Amino acid sequence: MEYSYPFSIDWSTEEIVDVIKFFEGIEQAYEKGIKREVMMAKYRRFKDIVPSQAEEKTIFREFEEASGYVSYPVIKQAKEAADGTTIKVAPKQRR
């Protein structure tokens, strides 16, 4: 699929790369599954870059509009799961 990842011009190159890796983790959770620890590490790094809840929601919405992947169900499942769990979100939760 061809689409652009959301990012801020205020971010460094490293931060942009890390945000892209986070969204690749979201994609992986829908497509084949991702280990909870891996997804949570990507999310923690994302939150270092985007600490604001409002900005997070805006970026999640931009990503959903571009890709069709909804980030929230992945993060919710990852937060609730035990270590060692594979996070796999059903396609019905995808736009």
TrEMBL record:
Family matches, as Pfam families: UPF0223
Gene3D superfamilies: BH2638-like (1.10.220.80)
InterPro entries to which the protein is assigned, alphabetical: BH2638-like_sf, UPF0223
Record-stated family: Belongs to the UPF0223 family.
NCBIfam families, per database record: PRK04387.1
Protein name: UPF0223 protein AEA09_14260
